[in-house]
Amino acid sequence: MAYATINPFTEEQVKTFPTTTDAEIETAIAKGDAAFQKWKNFSHADRARILQKAADLLRENLDEYSKLLTLEMGKRFAEAQAETELSAAIFEYYAKNAEKLLEPQDLPVADPQEGRAKLVYEPQGIIVAIEPWNFPFYQVARIISPQLSAGNTVILKHASNVPQCAAAMEKLMLDAGLPEGGFINLYPSHSQLATVIQDPRVRGVALTGSEGAGAKIAATAGGALKKCIMELGGSDALIVLNDADIEKAAKWAVFGRHWNGGQVCVNAKRMIVEDGVYDKFVELYRKGVSALRMGDPMDPNTTMPPLSSRGAVEDLKKQVSEAVAHGAKAEEVPLEMPNKGCFFRPVILTDLDESNPARRWEFFGPVTMLFRAKDADHAVEIANDSPYGLGGSIFSQNEEKAAELARKMDTGMVYINHPTMVKADLPFGGVKRSGFGRELIDLGLKEFVNTKLIDIVDIDAPF
């Protein structure tokens, strides 16, 4: 596994990083464990000061951090700035709320002789975080903020194409005052990562990535009897009902599919439109996609950046070709494309009948699947015909009806009149092959704590 910065816009290799040695792996685990023995005894106020300082440093150096995101994975600079701010907001959320969210909970008991029972939430040790390249700061902030707040320490294995972002996050936490060993970035091989996970000082594993990677890591964690949470792929449905504001729905659909270059697990990848407005929606959607502009991700006029790598481009081309071979119709939107960089013109896929396996794939890039639904129930049926269950959205001016339909969608998140969002104070996670477990708010905070029962019982109480 080669850790290297390759600029997706120029395809030039900027910098390489050596794989972590076995000795460095052992040193990191020992440091992480030693840091945990101290960090778990820090007060909530002391932890909060460090997390707030991390938020402040991100905001004070917003452009510096954001440029690193654009350099390594090709993110539009405006979106890179938004990601950096979102990461700061997550640190700040836990700085302000973690102590209250971790307060001991008194339990109501059926019989006073059962005692005075309460739940307390205690940290356990090192958590391994395995994170993807599409949101190099947000994904890290999303796991380390709650885990550090809970008193755990974290070892990071980031994606191989964002090594500078990984190192920047480690330095950020040290600069914020986190004790050495509290958060450690490594560049391990796959076999070394398995060694880290299996070490008894490691108490949990969190992965965000592909379902293939998730299956392998979950198997390794399971073999070592370690709890894990998996935030995996998605093929979110965006349902448009006959009574929706079609112009606004189409505008949001264009954004929802193409933000971050279409490389988001919660992109609106499948447009499912009721028959009565299908033709109008498609007309507006095609017009919106045609207005996108490919170019330098540092240029504020660019709305369609390059994909993260040449490999990502080739993988997407192969998927589209296979979808067409199985009977789909592919329309390439003829955007003017730069003569350099990892660019991929948007594609709209139609005529994906039930026998076409592509209708159940995740296209990680600007490929849209369009479906015509007979009615609202049929739209939900199409939406649920997927191995994934991450997010989804429903557009309708009848909010009550839309909320009722949302209950029928087999996903972890549903938004009404908006594509799936990522926010500091909203939970994130899915079902089916989109994974298990939740991140953010109190749900993410308690994923890797020991929820311990303490019961004070009268010594003379019967058993």
UniProtKB/TrEMBL annotation:
Q: One matching Pfam family, short form?
A: Aldedh
**One GO MF term:** aldehyde dehydrogenase [NAD(P)+] activity
Has the keyword Oxidoreductase been applied to this entry?
Answer: yes
Instruction: Answer whether the UniProt record assigns the keyword NADP to this protein.
Output: yes
The protein's superkingdom reads Bacteria
- Classification via InterPro entries: Ald_DH/histidinol_DH, Ald_DH_C, Ald_DH_N, Aldehyde_DH_dom, ALDH_GabD1-like, GABD/Sad-like
Protein name according to UniProt = Succinate-semialdehyde dehydrogenase
Q: Which family does it belong to?
A: Belongs to the aldehyde dehydrogenase family.
Signal sequence span is none
User: What PANTHER family does the annotation carry?
Assistant: SUCCINATE SEMIALDEHYDE DEHYDROGENASE [NAD(P)+] SAD (PTHR43217), SUCCINATE-SEMIALDEHYDE DEHYDROGENASE [NADP(+)] (PTHR43217:SF2)
Q: Which UniProt keywords apply?
A: NADP, Oxidoreductase
Residue span(s) of domain Aldehyde dehydrogenase: 3-453
- Encoding gene (name): ssdA
